[in-house]
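# nightly structure sweep
# worker-07 picked up a monomer target from the shared queue
# config: single-sequence mode, recycle default, output format = structure tokens
# input follows
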Amino acid sequence: MGRNVISSLLGVLLILTVLATGGFAEEEEKINLNSISVEELSKIPGLNLELAKKIVKLREENGEFIDMEELLSVPGIDNRLLRQLKKHLFVESVEDCNC
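# output follows
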């Protein structure tokens, strides 16, 4: 009976490890909007070179993005596209600022 309990616990531990690893892998695939280049950005599903240039221009003119919703000020980006972009991008400061 002791072996069954140990086997069950190991099985649960294995499942939890797989679930946790899957969650981390998904987050690692996202790219920081404050450090991505025009070329990389244009490869994100839903974007093209023109939109990528507008996004980087906005970042250069106004400084780092604080949140993804700022992308809604870019002509051509609506709520539907923003939801799609959130699957591939995240916002994190790359400069030492208190913005």
